[in-house]
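Entry 14: structure prediction run for fumarate hydratase. Input pasted below.
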Amino acid sequence: MMNVSLRTIARGLRLHVRDSGARVGGGRGPLPVSVTGQRWGTTVIRSARGEASRLPNVCDNNAASSSSITKLQFFRQFSTSSYTMADNFRIERDAFGEIKVEADKYWGAQTERSLTNFKINQPFDRMPPAIIKAFGILKRAAATVNMNHGLPGDIGKAIQQAADEVISLKLLPHFPLVVWQTGSGTQSNMNANEVISNRAIEILGGEMGSKKPVHPNDHVNMSASSNDTFPTVMHIAAVMEIEEKLLPSLKALLAVFQEKVKSFEKIIKIGRTHLQDATPLTLGQEFSGYATQLAYGVERIEATLPRLKLLAQGGTAVGTGLNTKKGFDVAVAAEVSKLTGIEFKTAPNKFEALAAHDAIVEASGALNTLACSLMKIANDIRYLGSGPRCGLGELSLPENEPGSSIMPGKVNPTQCEAMTMVCAQVMGNNTAITVAGSQGQFELNVFKPVLIKNLLHSITLLADGMTSFKDNCVVGIQANEDRIEKLLHESLMLVTCLNSKIGYDMASKVAKNAHKKGTTLKQSALELGALTSDEFDRLVRPELMIAPK
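Run finished. Output tokens:
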């Protein structure tokens, strides 16, 4: 990190500036900045990326006389802009030596190095907030248990207080790392250790970065390894997001579909198979299929929770529990349960818990199945609502916004389109999870961050997508009964009910003749002498075709 002087500041005023990165050029981290020229009362400075910024050249007498910016105004403007004072750092140390960290950041040396070493889609792929919250829960639980195993009480309580601030996401800006890092999540574990350590030091009146009296490894990470900590927070985050977001959203959507089943139960319509006319059913029966798909979705997702509620904490490096006290794993799971209100248990086999993530793959599989269900449901609804005049037009969907920038009056099934795009993304996430889940080698799977990133992404997309779909589409669906009735009686497949009376072959002739000549089934049957008028009226009754006799 280089800091350079602006040599052209008025009356010898020397301001050391650095590029804060987050606001200049979209990157991060201090960059070399150089003066490249002066023109018309400004000084042009250029960063190492070649990005130019112009500063008022207040050392130019003419510019100074014509400018209202005084030395004090200049100082205030640029000391609060993307350029900050050079002494606004502290020194952190780790096994690799010293490194500068911004003075107001709680993270430490290992986090800072990770920011430099893993400049991969920053900041867009930051570790999800649900993982940060889970880290706070786990670190607080571990501190509580460790106070019974030698952790000094004052340090333990300070860790608990700092962890509470992590849980509340108050300290979220101090977790800048992306998921693209070591496959064990070590950098994010150390990010949590460093933030909680420095915040606890601050609480106790110490100096941030000193590691005294609270050490990130010895105290915050006591009895733990990244190899068991990260899979534990993966499970905590997944379970909490499923129970608090996904399942409530899914159950609410299911309830609306169940209401539609009842309201549509007496509306008889033509069925369709292979995209061709088929025999009748009620609109309620059609919607009952959708409701059942969603009900099974609830069951499938809930069935994955028992294995997600098994925690790896206590396995440490390879699953043996090295550097833990006997019973530590059980106690931590119990403490996590108290903090979350969810019953977690320690994994009975820590080797499986570290080396494989089958529970994550299984959960993603359930989400993928739900995405398949929602894809079918949303597609059916938009097809049934196609039109308004030249499509099927059996359903009227809520009109939420204009649909075209060129075709006046056009309204599109946007909620169905959004829902199907969500489903496509969830299917893609599941593919990534499947591949990552297969990559456990020996005692450790090292695809952990990408596994949980994609799972949490799928959970959030489905939860938000289903809520939007419910509120802005499904609730307002109405049946176009006149259109449904018209299509029902135009269908040639009503002939199916004549099989038992005139046989399959004659019934087929009646249907083909009607289609060829553009007549009704009744006219065709009478023409071919298959039935009398009274017989046809008695047999061809759609209301008798929607259930077994």
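Notes: The chain has 19 helices and 15 strands. Will compare against the previous run tomorrow.
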